[in-house]
Specification:
This protein is of the alpha+beta class. The protein has helices spanning about 55-60, 65-80; strands at about 10-15, 20-25, 35, 40-50.
């Protein structure tokens, strides 16, 4: 691996403000803001709008698509065709 070609890979805290959730991971992202973490160290913090703690898909609050209603509407509009009907 060539030296000085790759960005600095360091510990970063990502914080979801909506859910009040934060997690420590490694990233190449940079931030001027810092946070004191549970282990007593200070890490850069990046605020995100949505994470797995607040995303509707992962929290089970996702809107369900009414597929039965769509099929019924299609059949009403275009009618069901019989395989034996040769018109």
């Amino acid at each position: 691996m060539q030296q000085d070609k790759h960005p600095d890979y360091h510990a970063v805290v990502f914080r979801d403000r909506a859910a009040g959730y934060a997690f420590l991971t490694r990233s190449t992202a940079r931030s001027e803001q810092t946070i004191d973490w549970d282990d007593g160290e200070t890490y850069p913090v990046i605020d995100v709008e949505i994470s797995s703690e607040s995303h509707p898909f992962y929290t089970g609050k996702a809107r369900q698509v009414d597929t039965e209603g769509r099929i019924a509407r299609f059949e009403r509009r275009y009618g069901q065709t019989d395989a034996g009907d040769a018109t």
